Amino acid sequence: MNPDLQFLQSQVQSNCHISDANFSGSFSLCGLLLRMRDLYKWESGLAPWEEPEHGLILEWVEQREELWAELEGQECKALKFDNACIGPFEVEEVNSRCAALGCLYGAGYVLGMKPSFFLALPVEETVINGLKIYTVEHELCRDIFVTPVMRQGDRIIARRQAMESLIWDVVQEQRPSVRPALDFALAGYGLDSRELLQRPNDFQSAYQHMVREELRIWVHHEIGEAAEDAFPGDVWHQMVANTCQTLAEVFIRAVKDLLADTHPHGLLAFMAARDSKPSLGLYLAMMRPLSKLLFMEIFRIFPEFTRTGEWSEVERVRTVAYARGRELAQKLVDVHRDSDPFHHERTVERIIEEIIRPLGILGEVDAEEMRR
């Protein structure tokens, strides 16, 4: 490996460790263990379907917790390039230096305002609607929190390894509530969940084809997000920062996701235009709990969709959900603008009581599930 790239890798991975040390407690115990298992597999070069030896992963967990104890409380460090030091969130400036090294850098704040970083080798670059889409295969650095697709300004990064792991986790979990949607999605790619779990290596051609196709489709969530204007300026970032690690933050993020998915140029519209029926099943199977509560219509019409394959009802509920998302976003913006900037707990209380409670979903919200 190029010595300069190796030095950058060590710096980025150090920031990943610092972030994990400071925010591991923000996950539920179940969520943390699942993420640690996935991180161990990635570090060990294991495929998502390859289970590690019990003794080895226990030893690794113990060592990682010791490392986190040493790093807890530290701040993420600036990245050194020759004689320059660049802040870890100055993504554009860092990537201007990464170009000569042939790598791509990503940084941002995820759920709970946890800093998240990665360094990867891009294999494909395209442009859609003025947005640069980078597909990465091999990741050199990552932290405990990964998402398959992320946007940074006019740059969208699609992470194949993350998508491969996420889909496998859904297949392995076999939640009864989404089993019909998952089976429908897999069947569209010539796969069966039982056979895939029993003999994963026998079906890798079809599975990897599904991963590549779904990653290309999921990019359109970020394209829809980039086109959405319900949260003007920097308002959305201010709102999630002010409501960090609360139900209100999860709700704000879920509303933004709903708008991205249901935007006329977003994920669902692209699925329909492409007639990608399996993708709709996978979308439902992978939907997070609060997002599901905000978009129950799509689940109600799905059984009929599996019989007819017609997108007209999907389009109808998409427009209904998009209008709802716009309305919820406006209410959130109104509360934000009317809030005391020095008393964020009051803002959280208002969002819960004035916006979430009237939806009638509070009793169905599982606090532990939200922290996974």
UniProtKB/TrEMBL annotation:
InterPro entries: DUF6866_C, DUF6866_N, Sfum_1244-like. Residues 8-159, 165-353 form the DUF6866 domain. NCBIfam families: Sfum_1244_fam (NF045620). This is Uncharacterized protein. It comes from Desulfonatronum thiosulfatophilum. The lineage of its organism: Bacteria, Pseudomonadati, Thermodesulfobacteriota, Desulfovibrionia, Desulfovibrionales.
